[in-house]
Amino acid sequence: MESENNEMNEPGLVTVFRLAGGGTEEMEVLTVRQLLESNGINTVLVGDSPMPNLAEEIRVAEEDAERAKQLIADALAAGPAGAAEAEAESER
């Protein structure tokens, strides 16, 4: 069964993060990608284009999608203070 998040019908990949636009927002995509990959989830960036009106998104394997979404939700809930704390913890 194909995931409804898989607009391009790439077998086994699910979009877990999408961001419209480019510029400084690209850093958010890269930060989320780093979060996922540092937790052992391989990612695929889609829409990496110099055209700012094209969406940037991150896709992961279907079996990692729920965990990826939970990691993203937890990071958003923790906010910048949580990110700083996690970074400090990783440096110990």
Descriptive account of the structure:
- By secondary structure, this protein is of the alpha+beta class.
- It has one domain: Alpha-Beta Plaits (2-Layer Sandwich), CATH 3.30.70.1940.
- It contains two helices and three strands.
- The protein has helices at residues 26-38, 65-90, and strands at 13-19, 44-46, 56-61.
- The protein has a three-stranded antiparallel sheet, with helices on one face.
- The protein is globular.
Give the structure's gist in a few sentences.
This protein has 92 residues and is of the alpha+beta class. Helix content is 42%, strand content 17%.
Kindly state the number of beta strands.
Answer: 3
Shape: globular
**Secondary-structure element order, N to C:** EHEEH
Q: Classify the beta-strand content into a percent band.
A: 15-25%
- Share of helix, binned: 40-55%
Mean pLDDT: 78
| End-to-end gap | 43 Å
**Would you tell me the structural class of the helices and strands?**
alpha+beta
In spatial order, strands of the major sheet run 1-3-2
